[in-house]
Amino acid sequence: MELIAVNFARTPFSLFQKRCASVIQKMSTPSKWTVEKNRILSLPIEEKRKLYKSGDFVTLNQIDPWCNYVVRNKEIETKKHNLEDLNEFRKIKLDQEKNKLLAEKVSVYRGDITKLEIDAIVNAANSRLKAGGGVDGAIHRAAGSLLQDECNSIGGCPTGDACITGGYNLPAKYIIHTVGPQDGSAPKLLSCYEKCLSFQSQYRLKSIAFPCISTGIYGFPNRLAAHIALRTARTFLENNEELQRIIFCTFMPIDVEIYETLMQMYFPLHEWNYNDGAAVSE
Description:
Elements: H1 2-10, H2 13-28, H3 32-41, H4 45-48, E1 58-59, H5 66-72, H6 83-89, H7 99-102, E2 106-109, E3 116-117, E4 120-125, H8 134-143, H9 145-154, E5 162-166, E6 174-179, H10 186-197, H11 200-203, E7 207-210, H12 222-238, E8 245-249, H13 253-266
Parallel strand pairs: 1-3, 2-8, 4-6, 4-7, 7-8
Antiparallel strand pairs: 5-6
């Protein structure tokens, strides 16, 4: 303490003031990512589109809701669930009166999640929130370097949790980062989907797109992961009128097959989609 007192005593007061002012200015000056994030979020859509790295973006109107998707792909109705699917499906009770409405609020999309011009896309992130491979790397590359700067300011994200950032150069306004389990934990994966959807009200999100969380190098079983995703989405939509669309992005053929099969159970267009011969084992 004595040494500090001596240093202060030897420092001219005017210089001391300048140093304090410099520190205060640095503390009060917004970071580059904060300024750019707010600027981009305030841009008119035509101006924002100039930031996209490619012109082949996909608007929400270009993505069929489930009810139209089935009409365009008649062969889907030949895909039937199995007994294991039925056991998983028993974990939810559908409000049958909402079937028709909710079939208009979900979509299966076979393509690149980074192309979607919607309110929010979900990133299958790692706990350090550092750019990685797969979907995570693709999102970071398309969004630009300021995304990593904002992620660094958050400082990490635990497994099963989620956080939200700007979308920067992506067509999507926001990116919701969630960390899926590496140990096959179904409760943690469920938490990922619930935490992502919990941002809907605060950020007034009308549309959200999910990748197949944890099913890549993390090794979560694809079929069980789809059940968890669809069950969580159905439960949320039955109790939320503001969210207009949940999009399930299925890049791998196995996931396309699974979602086209299980969507018929959770968002049925016909009674027999979810109550047919698969129940005969009872």
